[in-house]
Amino acid sequence: MSSYKAPLTDIRFALHDVLGVESVLQRLGKDDASRDVIDAILEEGARFSETVLAPLNSVGDEIGCSFDKATGAVTTPPGFKEAYQQYVDAGWPSINAPEEYGGQGLPHTIGMPLKEMIDAANLAWGNFPLLSHGAVEALLHHGNDWQREVFLKPLVDGRWTGTMCLTEPHCGTDLGLLRTRAAPADDGSYRLNGTKIFITAGEHDFTDNIVHLVLARLPDAPEGSRGISLFVVPKLQVNDDGSTGAPNGVRCGAIEHKMGIHGSATCVLNLDDAQGWLVGEPNRGLMAMFTMMNSARVAVGVQGLGLADRAYQNALAYSRERLQMRSLSGPKFPDQAADPIIVHPDVRRMLLTCKALTEGGRVLSCFAGTLVDTISHAPDAAERERADALLGFLTPIIKGCLTEWGVECTYNALQCFGGHGYIAEHGMEQLARDARITTLYEGTTGIQALDLMGRKTMQLEAAGLKAFLAMVGEFCSEHGDDDAMAEFIEPLRAKASEWEQLTRDIARRAAADPEEIGAASWDYMFYSGYVTLAYWWARSVAAARTGGQTGAFQRSKLETARFYFARLLPRTLAHKAAIETGAGPLMSLEAGDFD
Q: Where are the domains of the chain?
């Protein structure tokens, strides 16, 4: 069985030393989020994750959820429901929510590492409250006064949970094909009919009521994505005063049998004259849903980060204990029958890859949290706009790269165990299976890459990229005369320039052939991800040099950064070379010739 220890030291380093979140949050008017308060919350989150959630991880995998076909009820694995009640009793669902709806109003910056700890401890369990946050955001920004009053408060305090209902059996990413219908009723509500699939936490035994946010078409809706509206559809009928009544016409028809996250209920939902209410404007549902979806995409990126860290922790412990062969340069532990495998270069390659991607990704995710708070609370409109562009640009990188790196890291960690990683005893194969879904739901890696390349870069004239490159340029100028930082500043400056030129080259080719955008997107996303992490690793080295960490901690950061720049950043060379070949090698073979 794998174990988990929350990486509080490194989380604090990312928040306080690299990002300086206390001063950032004070500038945004969040004076209550002092360092002492942040650290106390993190410590309590670590305790809950380590002692309540982590022991249930293997239970959820082995037993899974059960489905009663006669009633449509889903029973979660033993201990899951009780853990959720502890989660609610401790006030965790409300931590980032607005105070006017019963929330604590604390910064989203704190929520990022809390989510990482929950996902590392028990990804399947963490899926149940995951989309409640997105539902709160969607209703907060797009719901009317009655919807916010009736639905937000029980979502915020955890009495109800939320879902996001997009996918249908015949359509996934192409939502313009969806068929679920919504007909107006005499009482001002709507009656929805259709089937939704792959609905995370669509049915469970944690709460009596579940708030489904459902995409559907009105009778007179235009075809395609321009004819989609968003509706709030509760599991139980909801009265004007917020009280609940009889079951609504939404029922779980099945739960999926999956490769991983067995403790998470992935549901088929059938809507049969289900009562719902229009959220936002008619035929503008995608805009409202993207508020929820973008929140979920960042959250799923953090899932990949959490799994990578847990896998790394276990692989590191095993590599220090497992004895096999001698070091190529001579015995390192001559008093033992063999050396521990951590002395071998290839094991170190795998461990350092996990460490570099995880610790760099942690700073990136925490930075995203500061952007969310900046968008909500910065007094200057230009600063809010810049933060919004930057978060929009980084979201597909966070979702796409952190989840793919999560798969890479769980694979590397499993490799460290050899054959013992393949059997269930050590829990590594569960982490590898669980990680795979993170690259799929809330938009596959290819969809994230196309969003980054097509929309966030080409359509929006690279506003987010320009903002990020400005940060890189400012940092490089600040440390340009520091000889101790030269080994990081010079390659970072060169990569930033190359990134800008590469983007221009793609745009030029795309003007002649639109296929160039899709052809470049996957490699462009990873190129962007590796340069992004290079910046955060350079920032981390600078912070470690001037902070109050131990000498061992500083050396660890310095040498891991050197590994990243020497061994991982060069992956950009292959991605750049692939991009420069253009669309031809991908598009020249006719579809019928693939046989």
A: 461-587
